[in-house]
Predict the structure.
Amino acid sequence: MFLTSKAAIANGQGGFSIQTLHLDAPQGDEVIVQIKAAGICHTDWDSQSWGKPIVMGHEGAGIVTQVGPQVTQVQVGDAVMLNWAIPCHKCFQCQEGNQHICEVNSPVTAGNKASGGHATLTSTRLNGQPIERAFSLGTMSEYTLVREAACVKINVDMPFPSAAIVGCGVMTGYGSVVNAAKVKTGSSVVVLGTGGVGLNVIQGARIAGAAKIIAVDINPLRLEMAKEYGATDTILADKNDEGLLKAAEQVKTLTSGRGADYAFECTAIPELGAAPLAMIRNAGVACQVSGIEQEIKIDMNLFEWDKIYINPLYGKARPQIDFPILQELYAKGDLILDKMITKTYPLEELATAFADMHAGRNAKGVVVF
């Protein structure tokens, strides 16, 4: 017996279409989730060009409808949010506590950017042929089949659209502050880029107790939004400011002339990969959040003196630990999620959602089913 599921399918050559998948009953530790909401981000856009057909989407939340015989932690009817860095809990990195860079399942360390280590599951088929799901999730689908380790129960009153975005941008931003940089209470923080990830860095810094949070962007509307999430100061940057060196002088003015304690790059612009180094004081911490993978040149003078540059993946996520914390912060009103979702779309309007994303009209767009 199988399910049919309407889904967004990337063709691998830069486009996508809405087609119908077939999903078999779950085996082993597999779970079928009826997706209620799927977040939209630049990675989903990029997945159209990964050179092969793929079920799109890597942020999602929904309801468990079927479970395999080895599943023990979730049951039919559970509301869950999904996590794309699926740990095996057995490899060297998982044993070291680095579940986000699992050597078996991580789409980065396992060498398969699209799907991770458990990519080819024959129980998901398109036109009779197995098809991979982006990051082993494929959330832009009415139903998806995932491993149990990808599921985290939702234990608070949280709308599915808000739950869906926790699994990537929220975790990346918050975790980069709390897990990776370990921002200290009373410190100063500068955030370069105030899109979805940048806003979550800002509110992560606020939750961590940073005293001064400086938001830098070229979009004045985004800077106004940044204040709602916790920015104490804003700098409207000039897009012709190479390396944001002029903005860095303004940051120093706001931080007693020495620079911020921490700086986070959230622009995904390769030319700005070194920019956070210009923003921090000697012995400060620069954090590259947005996942720049291109080759860049860095003036080593920016490293003087004793500066630290880190490049964490996914906010060093430990899903079964961090996601419940984020849920509790949301329930307390400390973590802003509902307001972050600027607009929701049916799956059939995914092209419009991508256009709105590229135009900067949304803090976060979400597909709802």
Remarks:
- The chain has two domains: 2-154+337-368, 174-313.
- The chain is about 25% helix and 25% strand.
- Confidence is low (pLDDT under 50) at residues 110-120.
- The first helix runs from residue 42 to 46.
